[in-house]
Write a structure and sequence with these properties.
The complex is a heterodimer. Chain A is mainly beta. Chain A contains five helices and 32 strands. In chain A, 12% of the residues lie in helices and 45% in strands. By secondary structure, chain B is of the alpha+beta class. Chain B has a domain of 122 residues: OmpA-like domain (60s Ribosomal Protein L30, Chain: A), CATH 3.30.1330.60. Chain B is 49% helix and 9% strand. Chain B contains ten helices and four strands, in the order αααααααβαβαβαβ. Chain B has a four-stranded mixed beta sheet. In chain B, α1 crosses α2 and α8 packs across α9. Chain B is globular. The chains are: A mainly beta, B alpha+beta. The interface between A and B is large, with 40 and 31 residues.
Amino acid sequence: MLTRLVVAALFALLAIPAQAVMTIEIVGGASNRIPIAILPFGAKQAERASTEPKLDIAEVVASDLGRSGYFRLVDGKDSVSPSEPKVLSLPVWKERGADAVLMGQVLPVSDGKLEVRFWLLDAVRQTELKAMAYVSSPASLRVVAHKIADAVHEVLLGEPGSYSGRIAYILKRNSRYELQVADADSQNAVTITASPEPLISPAWSPDGRRLAYVSFEDKKPVVYVQNLADGKRIAVAKFRGSNSAPAWSPDSRKLAVTLSKDDTSQIYMLDIETGATTRFTHGGALDTEPLFSPDGRWLFFTSNRGGTPQIYKASLIDGSASRVTFEGGYNVSPALSPDGKTLAFVHRRDARFHVAVMDLASGQMQVLTDTVHDESPSFAPNGRQILYATLVNGRGVLATVSVDGKIRQRLSQSGDLREPTWGH
Amino acid sequence: MKYLVHVVLIGILLSGCADKPLKQASIEDRALSTAADKPVVDAAAGSVSTSGASAADVSSRALASDAGKVKDANAVETHGVVVQNPEAKALGNAAEQTQNAGKSPDSTASGGNSGQPDKADSLKYVAQPVLDPHNAQSPLAQRRLLFDYDSAAIRDEYRTLLEMHAQYLKNEKAAKVILQGHADERGSREYNLALGQRRSESVYKALGLLGVPEAQMEAVSLGEEKPVSDGHDENAWAQNRRAELLYQGD
């Protein structure tokens, strides 16, 4: 935990803040939202004197929970922040319609660090549901706020939230391409790399420390791997022809990539350390968009070997391949839920491109979106939401949809947003 | 329209020789000025504005379902003229033959007449295109081949063009060309990259069959990332499904 905060703090120091701010629009929501009151987090005088820009933790938590579609916010902004739970009158909050109340305190500890304590209370049964504390540097309070939202989500809904994750995406503005990383609420965006030539296919290493992506700065696609901590990058696949579609192995040591060095686009395994490649697919069809299953046993990919582009999976043990998608003539861009049980992909229906999901055990498929130019689906760390890119009025925006299709959000910004991927 | 393009084509063929001493000055001048007005035939096709582009969503949905069937009028017209015009084709072929003859040591044009190079050269002025990809008025300035929906097959109309590029590459052993394949914007970026790669590989194979050494070529793809038309309709997509020849030094 502490390591992650330290890494995040280091990262924040090195990164260049991006200027544009995204806006979030919620489209739809759960039918039964949990009413929750989030009270201002009290702070001792010492913290008030801090030189860091003040962060309203309650505001960030409320924003996370409010836009998730699972919660209804009961206005708690105007209330004074209680110093401890026992001075809080839960019946009053129950009266105001809250089923749950979140309150907290920020206290200075040694080395200029802050301790954030919070209590989640059940206003109906008048009990304490959770009490916890995080210690962080003042610069990482936003991370703490997202983690509190995760904890509240998990206690009240029985499954983890995904508010503290990070997303990577490509922003195109003024004919410049930027690979950016941001918090899951699209705040705190930093530019990792920028180029006048296109950037596509960012992919997080499973340990969250590196990003692989494809850059066209050499007048052809080349695969790069870049450290987030120091910004150092290397061209890991720059063979004759095109190099693209990087996908990390679960141990972060290999990339599956699409290369055209020997034949038309085929999938290869690339050892990042040595640069050695091993060809994985064979035959004259197009094979691309590789993806490791989380257990490392399967490689999912897109191929037109059956005449139309469809998703296949091949065993990483014996190489045998089988077709996964059958419905329709165009199923591409596979993404897997963290438990490996659900496949998300782009499905074409009536010349429109939608995000769809398939339960891999039953083969049952469901189209989730009504947008028509969907691309690049990617699961949230909790497996409950899918992030993707689409076009709205001809402009690229990011959107999320819950795996049941009921809750949708859109993130937009000046410029074109595309190729999003959720870090784990 | 056909006549105009024909004139432009002749203009291109003739004007390439402008830096050499010519006797038919008045004719060349006129041809040159015509060519200057419309220097590259294909550029005109590439920049055809898509009036429906801003109507984006509604129209693109309706069109998209018939994507494979809708023919792009501009592309057909432009390339139809260049290729289906038998005279233009004949000129191209003749040009190649003349040039071959000029290079060949035992050709009748130069053999035994070495004392009169002017005369031999002046014969070539009429028909020989200048094979220089960096000369905007050379036929090699046309670098773009369009493809049908979901297809990497090279249309017949580009045969002469590829023959001329092949000839240049065979003559200029030091010249190198990157073949860039492109796709329209629909669907996955990575799958479109693979589709674009197929298209550049088609051109690579075609040039290879015409005798161009593999070491002078590289087939790559830019997928849907570099459209020439920003529209979201079939007209734009037809312009964007293409391969381009990029010479070293471009």
